[in-house]
Amino acid sequence: xSANTNSAILHRSLEKxxxxxxxxxxxxxxxxxxxxxFDGSSGAAVSCLGHGNKEVIEAICSQxxxxxxxxxxxxxxxxxxxxxxxxxxxxxxxxxxxxxxxSGSEAVESALKIARQYHVFRGEPERxxxxxRLHSYHGNTLGALAAGNNPGRRKIYEPILSPAFHxxxxxxxxxxxxxxSEEEYEDQRISEYEAEFLRLGPRTVAAVILEPVVGATLGSxxxxxxxxxxxxxxxxxxxxxxxxxxxxxxxxRVGTYHAWQSLGNVPPDLQTxxxxxxxxxxxxxxxxxxxxxxxxxxxxxxxxQAFLSGHTFQxxxxxxxxxxxxxxxxxxxxxxxxxxxxxxxxxxxxxxxxPSKFFENGGSLRGLGLFRTVDFGTLGDVCGGPxxxxxxxxxxxxxxxxxxxxPTVDAILICPPYIMTKVETKELAGTFVExxxxxLA
Length: 441
Ligand code: PMP
Known about the structure:
Protein name: Pyridoxal phosphate-dependent transferase
CATH topology of the largest domain: Aspartate Aminotransferase, domain 2
Distance between the termini: 30 Å
Bound molecules: 4'-deoxy-4'-aminopyridoxal-5'-phosphate
Organism: Hypoxylon rubiginosum
Strand content: 15-25%
Keywords: Transferase
């Protein structure tokens, strides 16, 4: 079935053909027309256990048999409670409570609202501004879109996006830092925040929001060594909350349970997670709430309604039971460590197999764990145009789906399931390199 001929769906692209995905097994997706596609980006950093996991399927069926849905204004449920405790335990005490939601965008919206409410509860209603970063992405609903700064996605909606969101820093993108030491580069970025806080008035700022590892917009760009700790310290001085959006980079993908644990180990006040949390078996996202915010909410509510933002399907029993099975498997099978190991295998394979033309023209590899990016640098300039779109399409034709980053960079994100073996990692990387060579030829 294609988008333009038989489909009843208004697809993202009206030009592209979308084969129907009809089955899946491990790292592969089968299409209705008989193809087998390597899920080389876990969809978009979602399917971390791959497809057809029998334990997860059993957890879904068992919960469906017991009870599918009970509204959260009347009930909690065992899987929702147990999953919350499980995630917090794995976070080593960084968070005190969890808010369940359905999508990453909903989690971001809720984190923004929790931050706003926190300041109102503390008697600082003048804190109405949020500071995000250029070239970031936090989701597609209006608040999340306003928080992010992905020009391609925002432009048409700009007149209806809230002016309370401001953006600083061209991001901790290593190419920007050429000629500067890492420390000088960080100095610049942190002073941009400081200048923005002063421009707005520090007591008008509610929170900063950022992705510790930038995902879809730039392709696995890591915060530099002291960036998160220095920013957190600056925010603390001004009473501003930190929100880390780990919807894409979190839940083990970079080789630690949370990405910030690899990047200075300073937890945020609020964190969003999604995608890998439920691994695509059910939609589920969350806001993880740190102690400072939690204590303020608990101290304030005194029996009254604490958080004013309910969603009908939050804490859905089947979604929580499913994600609980996913998270237990990840912990039991040491899959976070596997991300680290297989990430290195992937990196080494690409480093030794990509043609020299790639590196000679500013091509680079970056990322951590199984969150890796191939950036074509200036190679597109000598090849008559950006390469990412063509290479990702060619890879798909050869049997591997990999994720094209936004046009801000000419780059492809490779973020396969955590369950990858060495053989599968080399197979995926081999298909990618072959696609690249065929496009260059
Ligand atoms: N935040 C980040 C960092 C994301 O990458 C995404 C999705 N790519 C979102 C939020 C939004 O998640 P969703 O598409 O599930 O709403």
